[in-house]
Amino acid sequence: MTLEAQARAALKRGDLPAAAAAAKALVLNSPEQPAGFFLLGVVAAEAGQIAKAVPLIEAAVERGPEAEHLAQLARLLILLRRDGEAADAARRAMELSPSDALTLDTIGCVLARLGNHEMSVIPFGAAVAAEPDNLDYRYNLAAASGFTGRVADARAHYETILAAEPGDARVHYALAILSRQTARANHVSRLETALAGARRPEDVLRIRYALAKELEDVGNTADAFRHLSAANTAHKQAISYDFAQDAAIFDGVEAIFGNPGNALVTGVGQLGAAPIFVVGMPRTGTTLVDRILSSHRDVEAAGELQAMPLAVKQLAGTPSRSVIDPATIAASADVDPAMIGEAYLARAAHYQRCHKVRFTDKLPANFLYIGHIARALPDARIVCLRRNPVDTIWSNYKNLFASQSAYYSYSYDLMDTARYYARFDRLMALWEEILPGRVLQLSYEALVADQEGQTRGLLEHCGLEWDEACLSFHENSAAVATPSAAQVRRPINADGVGKWRSYQEALEPVRAWLQAQNIQTD
């Protein structure tokens, strides 16, 4: 067996010391060849030493680029938030016409992480063609198909997976949210069977969410709430969430921007009106507005970018692993806003593929960064979606966000979500006080009731000329990777208005609490 084969065999069985020894011997024997350096990099990556792995794989690429090596380099660069370099490595890997399924799937995953779901379908499809029985590859293709509007293809791939793995909770949840279920066509019975057989807490969580969604679709709100309540109670306990974690972040933002005596570094920021920020609580119409704007001839959707949070974190220089925390917010007060603007635009550029004159950044949590945006990008436009508070809280509670994301930890408890909404509402009032007129606070209900009138106001705020295509946003073929994917491919409708009233008894404590905080609920 060759040294390369020895190293690969050791990696496959998880024996990292043996793999490292064989790879080192390969480097000593053939220092001009890429294989040894590549395998040493893979060993380092498997050991969690990503920063050490990258230069080793780069050394392999320098000795003669191979698709496998470039694909793995792209994967690691994504983990290090070096998105531009990752995109370049993935492109070079595809140009080498790879044929092995793992390399193709890896390229697809990188493209998906970069928000390029349309392009990811190509390598994902090739990976499944090469290894049709690999269910992970098929799941990735199914997800990309759903994001890009190929709903029938997505459904077929998901069903193929379930035929082989009937308990796959990821697939059950994906199928539930892929489209609206009906009394005649739903998966409730199958989901109940899957729930009975689920053992891992994360599987129970996803299946209960799937059941809640489908039961709501068919009008069984009592059982829908029962499953949601059980799922969320268990998950909140598992992640040990305390609202004080989020309260401290709001406190930090208000401390640096809401205190007139607080000295912020002065600067003019980066001029130019290219970015349009669509912000707000999740599930309030941000995806809808993003689709309306990106249907305009001069605007492209860049996606839910982490560019502003990462720019602030990078320049604040705090050592914590959290992207946003009180220390990072406090340190950001000392950063030149022009540097934040420059860092933001550099990161955002990697997600602009059409090179139109304007682009949208639809990260809802950017409402926390409106002060930074206003200083760093003084010409940027900001739109904040506002929806009925109880509908907002209910929609957050019933939606399964990325379950490991700290952004949405509040959403597993109704009262935590209400408290979060109240702090959001207070922060938006602060922005209006110190940045009057800078943020368009757009009512979801008003948009539904008067699509054209509100769209005209939206475009005017964003400095855009009228474009009739914005009224036909549902015909926009761009990918959607949010839970709203099915909704925004339909014409505008009032289905989501007043949805909370189907759960009025369960939500009465929330409504009463909001009113006690002087937050109107009707």
Strand order of the largest sheet: 2-3-1-4-5
| Secondary-structure-derived class | mainly alpha
Radius of gyration: 24 Å
Separation, N- and C-terminal Cα atoms: 73 Å
Strand residues, percent: under 5%
pLDDT average, as an integer?
A: 94
InterPro entries: P-loop_NTPase (IPR027417), TPR-like_helical_dom_sf (IPR011990), TPR_rpt (IPR019734), TPST-like (IPR026634)
Keywords: Transferase
GO molecular function, one term: protein-tyrosine sulfotransferase activity
Protein name: Sulfotransferase
Write the layout of secondary structure elements.
Elements: H1 3-12, H2 16-29, H3 35-46, H4 50-62, H5 67-79, H6 83-95, H7 101-113, H8 117-130, H9 135-147, H10 151-164, H11 169-178, H12 188-197, H13 201-217, H14 221-239, H15 244-257, E1 275-280, H16 286-294, E2 299-301, H17 307-316, H18 326-332, H19 337-349, E3 358-361, H20 370-376, E4 381-386, H21 389-398, H22 414-434, E5 439-443, H23 444-449, H24 451-461, H25 504-516
